[in-house]
Design goal:
The structure holds two protein chains of two kinds. Helix content of chain A is 79%, strand content 0%. By secondary structure, chain A is mainly alpha-helical. Classes of the chains: A mainly alpha, B alpha+beta. At the A-B interface, α5 and α6 of A face α1 and β6 of B.
Amino acid sequence: MKKKVLAIILFGSIWGLLECSLGDYLHTHDMPAGIIMSGIAFSIMAYARFAYDAKGMQIGMASIAAIMRHFNPMGGCLLCASISIFIEGLVFEALWIIPWHKEKSNVIKMGIGAISGYSIYSIGYIATQIITPMMTSKFYLRDLISNLPVIIAGATYALTIGAIALPLILAIPKEIKMRDTLYYTVSAAIIAVSWIAVIAGI
Amino acid sequence: MSRREFVISVIALLLLATGIASSLYLHSQQINKGDFITVGNEKIYMDDIFKKCRIVSVEVNDKGVVKNYTGALLSDIINMSKVKNPEEHKYTVAGPGKEGGLYQKTVEWDDMKNGILTEDKRTIFPDLPRAFWIKDVIKIEVI
């Protein structure tokens, strides 16, 4: 149990750090940040589910990453990114209510990777299009409808990333053999470095 | 192929089909970029905008750095286009999306009074999240 809680904080912190650093870099350089970051988010969540086999872990990780993103002093549109991260966690939990990581068939691994990648990206994006205007201004359905083709077209790339990533993730060794003391020390150090980096505005 | 594999494959392929269809739709949309923006049905040239509208600077916290943006007041641009009773309308600002097609956001008159259009045709709304900022503005619809 203790290991699982630590893993939630660890994976959530790594995800949050990547959102605040790589995500911002991609945004600033006009690269497809949303597609790449949702692919990374899916990979982290899928590996955590595979390695720890615990439902609910991913929503915890997403909450931590969303909090880090929200309080990152360097971030742009903090609200959109935080909402999107949290929704990505929710969508993953909903889709992975069935233990897909236990499937042996490569067709199912690729198919679920594709469905997860597509859904996580598109639902996360749509949620920000609804919730951000509702919280800061006013939501207009016509804007969402007009922007849907852009969102769905982007989801094609997320689908491809998911289809390729999942079979590879499920081929990673499940457990890295490590003494408990070393496991806790290394995890605590990574968590500390991630939070310090985010608070310092890296 | 088992039944489970068949169902998952069909769902994945259907999603892929919607994505490809959306991409094709966006690429079929011709976007005319020029040295003007369309407000309602009227073309307004950038030169005229920067000659006739008030040019103001706004301060925005952009990724932790306070930045100054300078541009023409959006409310003045709307007034140039002779929209009647501008305060009674909403305004949909549209620019090209990343995949092609249009990306748009609708704002209120109060936002137009605070927002600006920069020389590189980007809207800046200091009181709204960056999701509302549109690059390479093509048109402003009056609704």
